[in-house]
Design goal:
single chain, about 425 residues, mainly beta, 17-stranded parallel β-sheet, 11-stranded parallel β-sheet, 32 strands, globular, signal, T9SS C-terminal target domain-containing protein
């Protein structure tokens, strides 16, 4: 009888372990990166375009999987119309004309791919590189903390004056709906501009909370992968891979949620100053801001922020690895159940932020896994972080600190076709404190 009872307990333990999943970092009973992502897009061949997208789209339009589209110049979806894109459709951004797709204020994009048939935006060059084309821009009607109405007309360079009205964003409708991006890949975007800045892979300006943004992957972007200006854009299962600049940048009063999402940096590409996984600001220029309005607030849960360095100490010496998160003055971050692995250090707070209880209660790190970072949380230009270590190292925050190699930490990050960046089962033990 005892033997049978023992066997039943062992069977239950095996079954429980097979269905268990780590609660920190990206989560899922299955690897949700399977099928729709591509971590080696240079090998893909989509053939020659059969259709051209150019000028303004002024009536409801549907792009079909049976065609491959060339995105030429500045394409605007205008006049409150909807651009619908079928699963499996490929849109190729033109290098020469800096192809960009802008969903103007009041218009919609409905790009609903499938896990097994994603929608792909990519480069038309035979040897693809970051910054080959512009990117996707969605302009909505939700608020920012700027004075008055706003425009991104300067972003396009020599834009025809008749198109200026299509570059406005902002309003008062937090529930506005700019459509759907689901199972979408954006590759090699971020074309350089004349002022030496770059397009973003996906720019969301004043996008309202009824907009659906799920399972979007941006890879090899020369600018910010995801740039959020104001609004209430919420992102789930977003992936940024090998961005040259920020993976996720929030600014100008954004009220956003970022959930179950992944950012992977590499010291060989992502080495420029001010290039982080998360950059959370409330302004770039103080004179633009109405401080009676809400500053930027980001709620983040189950993120994995990873630097894929295979020689962390050497790359730190060479200055190729920076912090994972930067938080600016008047901005708030509430992040929990997330992993930060392999940075220098994990987090930096703007030097304008006074270190006191009032400010630190706006910047929360709870139930975190800080792994293999050269320091954890610092104030900018300050090498003494004892006060911050004492605050966030308090057992009530349930933060864990470790020094494990990436290969030991994640399930399988070496596979090109099906990498799995979930934490290994039982990797984190119930322990707190600082290393």
């Amino acid at each position: 009888m005892k033997k049978i009872t023992y066997m039943i307990w062992m069977l239950l333990l095996v079954i429980g372990s097979s269905y268990a999943q780590q609660e920190k970092g990206i989560v899922g009973s299955d690897n949700w990166l399977d099928n729709w992502t591509d971590f080696n897009p240079k090998t893909a061949d989509y053939g020659e375009p059969s259709q051209i997208l150019t000028g303004n789209i002024t009536k409801d339009t549907k792009l079909s999987k049976r065609d491959t589209y060339l995105l030429m110049g500045n394409v605007f979806v205008t006049d409150s119309v909807t651009l619908t894109i079928e699963p499996g459709t490929v849109i190729i951004g033109d290098f020469q004309s800096k192809g960009t797709l802008t969903i103007s204020k009041g218009a919609k994009i409905v790009a609903e791919g499938l896990e097994t048939d994603p929608i792909v935006f990519t480069s038309n060059r035979s040897v693809k590189k970051a910054g080959d084309w512009g990117g996707i821009i969605i302009l909505g009607e939700a608020p920012t903390n700027k004075f008055g109405n706003s425009s991104i007309s300067s972003l396009y360079g020599n834009l025809d004056s008749s198109s200026y009205r299509y570059t406005n964003y902002g309003g008062t409708n937090t529930n506005s709906n700019s459509g759907v991006l689901r199972y979408v890949r954006i590759e090699y975007a971020g074309k350089k501009l004349k002022d030496r800045s770059n397009f973003s892979g996906l720019l969301l300006a004043s996008v309202g909370n009824e907009t659906v943004l799920e399972n979007v992957m941006i890879s090899y972007c020369a600018g910010d992968s995801f740039r959020i200006i104001g609004g209430e854009a919420n992102l789930t299962k977003a992936v940024s891979y090998r961005s040259s600049k920020n993976d996720f940048k929030f600014n100008y009063g954004a009220q956003s949620q970022l959930t179950n999402s992944l950012a992977i940096r590499t010291p060989y590409i992502s080495s420029s100053k001010k290039a982080r996984c998360l950059e959370i600001l409330s302004y770039s220029k103080k004179e633009e801001i109405d401080f009676t309005k809400k500053g930027t607030t980001v709620l983040a849960k189950n993120l994995t922020l990873l630097n894929s360095s295979n020689d962390l100490n050497e790359h730190i010496k060479l200055g190729l690895i920076k912090e994972a998160i930067f938080i600016g003055e008047s901005a708030s971050l509430d992040i929990n159940k997330s992993v930060i692995s392999g940075f220098n250090p994990a987090v930096i707070l703007d030097d304008k932020i006074m270190i006191n209880q009032e400010n630190l209660e706006k910047i929360k790190f709870v139930d975190m896994y800080f792994n293999n970072c050269n320091g954890n949380i610092f104030k900018e230009y300050n090498t003494n972080n004892e006060d911050l270590e004492n605050w966030y190292g308090n057992r009530s925050f349930y933060n864990v600190y470790a020094k494990s190699q990436n290969s030991e930490t994640f399930i399988d990050m070496k596979s090109e076709k099906r990498p799995d960046f979930r934490l290994r089962i039982n990797k984190i033990i119930a322990a707190n404190g600082k290393n």
